[in-house]
Write a structure and sequence with these properties.
The protein has 11 helices and 13 strands. The chain is of the alpha/beta class. Bound molecules: glutamic acid. The site of glutamic acid has 14 residues, from helix 3 and strand 4.
Length: 360
Amino acid sequence: MSLRYKKIAVKIGSNVLTRADGTLDITRMSALVDQISLLHKKGVELVMISSGAVASGRSVLGIHKKMDVVDQRQLYSAVGQAKLINHYYDLFREQGIVVGQVLTTKENFGSRRHYLNQRNCMRVMLENNVIPIVNENDTISVSELMFTDNDELSGFIASMMDMQALVILSNIDGIYNGSPADPESKVILRIEKEQDISDFIQNSNSTFGRGGMLTKTAIARKIADQGIEVIIANGKRDNILLQLLDKKSEVVSTHFVASTSEVSSVKKWIAHSEGFAKGEIHVNENAAKALTGDAAVSLLPVGAIKIVGDFEKDDIVKIIDANGHSLGVGKVQYDSGKAREMLGKKNQKPLVHCDYLYLE
Ligand code: GLU
């Protein structure tokens, strides 16, 4: 088998892992574990992002009384994650493979130190032939700071671990050019970099997970822009992963074609840091034009017109144009006080150096 990719992140959605009644579908889990094991034995470096904790906890406890949503999430995920990882552990052990659990929160991606610490943990696991199985730590995630869903989390992970491809397994074949229920609709097989598909997307959420097609598409695009191939495929289809990775095989799925431009590791982190921005730098029209042009340029004080918020040197800030539109994010070289003093001045060092600027 000649492989398409050597380093992949595989996200498995709750709907792939659960039956219609909400219980864990062990047969499906086992089939996916078999495929992942085979790829692992062929030398593919793999990180799994698996949902299903909340769904499986809910089905174990079968509580029918009314409960606060946060209480529910915390209780179900605490119980369900233990169940989920136990199953994975046993299934992989039958294949002679060791897996480890990584639970994270969005806040862990906010500071560069936590980010690198987390990356190191997963690197060490991979170097020692251990497959990391990642999930959001729903027991301690604070609602406002949670990942939109595990699709977003899988994008963060694929980018952080410099994967060649991210495979998002859901319970449909990919993104359709109409309603998936309509027999006339077809799966869009390839989505190129600039292609606008917003008219096609239906945001019907899956039954057991948090993710919908809209977020899947937004994440897929962002990750593909960082040079990582993204594939959305049906995890309920037999041998789907093997077929996706086998160069000789074609299988129905939606493939977001990766951009060929190199994105540095720091930029990849900055790309995901928007939610942690401490302030804003507003820029004039000329600066906006220069920043969004083809050349890599830094954001200079002369092009800045307003500073919003209080931030420290090295914090993440949003870059906003004169019409109030966000252009991207960057790591700022001065605190907000100093940045205010420098506003509009010529011949100064950049507020944000181009190596630390991520434009949308
Ligand atoms: N972290 C959640 C779980 O394991 C899933 C979130 C999602 O559905 O995307 O149950």
